[in-house]
Amino acid sequence: MDQLTTEQIDQLKQTKTIGIIGLGDMGTLYARRFSKAGWKVVGCDREELYEETLAKFSQEKFTILKNGHLVSRISDFIIYSIEAANIDKMVALYGPSSKFGAIIGGQTSCKAPEIAAFEKYLPPDTEIISVHSLHGPKVDPTGQPLVLIQHRARDESFQFVECLMSCLQSKHVKLTAKEHDRITADTQAVTHAAFLSMGVAWKSTNEYPWETPKWIGGIENAKINISLRIFSNKWHVYAGLAITNPSAHDQVLQYSKSTTELFTLMIQGKHAELKERLMKVKQFVFGGNNVASKHDLLLNDDLLQEFSLRKVPPEGRQPNSHLSLLAIADSWYNLGIVPYDHIICSTPLFRIFLGVTEFIFCTPNMLDECIDVAINDTSFRQDDLNFTIAAQTWSNIISFGNFELYKREFVETQNYFRHMFQEANEIGNEMIHTILERVKQREQEST
Ligand SMILES: NC(=O)C1=CN([C@@H]2O[C@H](COP(=O)(O)OP(=O)(O)OC[C@H]3O[C@@H](n4cnc5c(N)ncnc54)[C@H](OP(=O)(O)O)[C@@H]3O)[C@@H](O)[C@H]2O)C=CC1
Ligand SMILES: O=C(O)C(=O)Cc1ccc(O)cc1
């Protein structure tokens, strides 16, 4: 289709109303950005919180309505930005109030249940175009992937949604709902499982890793900052993403299996077997025609060295078995996933996880050092044991689909780390900014 002219864009801005149901972190980000770009935006949060919501957003350029019915009746594009576990209930409630011919979409992180709810409850005159910003609310959307799903819609409607979304300055990635769920299971769900397991393991051994001399160096800083970043967020985001996506269950289960099997080889002292297994992994994940083999490494320990939560950051990296990073590459190998294939559709946290794993596998002698530590140095055994147990626990909770257990495990660990969140988020933001600049630089080099 031809690009829209400036006059056509202005015409859309004057005639279309954008509705957002759920003004939490992501809904607010969208409402602010759209209204600042000149779109007419209306939104709502829970009806019982109407007065508070009105007061909270009194200075904003968008209009607060009482509930999702009122938003739906007048909006041309309606975005459900609510908890994943509630999508069926919410669409059943507000969907039939959708304006005649409206376009409906959602921001939930797994699309199968969202699309199923839309197909079940929306009037047949409506169209369906869903979205997913692949970053958290504290990250600048500029340059980050934004998935767009033209599920049941005319090209003209898709063009309108793309035009609206262009104010986020994200990179548009057009996928089907199925492709989206498969890729995000490979990238997000397993990334979260790894960092959630680190947090739980530190809590189990009663350690604050920034206070313990073992966790020193850039790679350790990345682990600590990302883990705390996830635990400072809302539990339902991670629970919804993993539990509602069936592909995520397989990925998280494989991660737990890889962790257990590698740890078993470590405590059995099977050096040769561990090395042989990891060399196969290295060849499959990092040996082919991928980014790491053609360019400098995305991340290195020196780059990440300064992002420490320690009061006085000590110099130098300490050896570590890096079980969490060996296990992710082992999972990719076992599932036949080449993580570089998903870069176009990846979150900042996934790119960091890939970057540090790449560093361990592709820095000369580093993998040998990890294997030596894993076999000969017992100082990480207790941590690795607790990490293995934590990975199994998350896998069990996710495959049982138990939201309440997920919440309990998450919130207990969240409370353990809570006093450090503000500092961790500030340092984590700087770290992510530096890394994203580096990603951009690398992309420019490769084009
Ligand atoms: N946070 C993130 O990093 C990202 C999240 N997502 C996805 O986006 C969605 C929203 O996430 P996020 O903004 O972080 O979560 P929030 O919890 O911040 O936002 C959800 C909002 O919806 C409100 N809500 C619940 N029921 C209703 C209702 N009946 N009518 C109107 N509003 C209601 C919630 O109120 P209350 O809190 O009172 O329940 C809350 O304010 C989720 O599905 C998440 O998976 C996608 C990309 C990134
Ligand atoms: O980058 C990550 O993985 C995050 O933790 C933020 C996040 C959470 C949920 C999403 O659907 C998208 C991004």
Fold topology:
Layout: H1 6-15, E1 17-21, H2 25-36, E2 40-44, H3 50-56, E3 63-64, H4 68-74, E4 77-80, H5 87-94, E5 103-106, H6 111-121, E6 127-133, E7 145-152, H7 155-165, E8 171-174, H8 177-204, H9 218-231, H10 235-243, H11 246-267, H12 271-286, H13 291-294, H14 301-305, H15 323-335, H16 348-362, H17 366-376, H18 381-400, H19 403-417, H20 421-446
Parallel strand pairs: 1-2, 1-4, 2-3, 4-5, 5-6, 7-8
Antiparallel strand pairs: 6-7
Compact overview of the structure:
InterPro entries: 6-PGluconate_DH-like_C_sf (IPR008927), 6PGDH_NADP-bd (IPR006115), NAD(P)-bd_dom_sf (IPR036291), Preph/Arog_dehydrog (IPR050812), Prephen_DH (IPR003099), Prephenate_DH_fun (IPR012385). The protein is α/β, with parallel strands linked by helices.
Describe the structure.
This protein is an alpha/beta fold. The protein folds into two domains: 6-175, Rossmann fold (3-Layer(aba) Sandwich); 180-446, no CATH class. 59% of the residues lie in helices and 9% in strands. The chain has an eight-stranded mixed sheet, sandwiched between helices. α8 (177-204) runs antiparallel to α15 (323-335), α8 packs across α18 (381-400) and α11 crosses α15 (323-335). The longest helix is centred in the middle third of the chain and has 28 residues, at 177-204. Bound molecules: NADPH dihydro-nicotinamide-adenine-dinucleotide phosphate and 3-(4-hydroxy-phenyl)pyruvic acid. The site of NADPH dihydro-nicotinamide-adenine-dinucleotide phosphate has 27 residues, from α2 and α10.
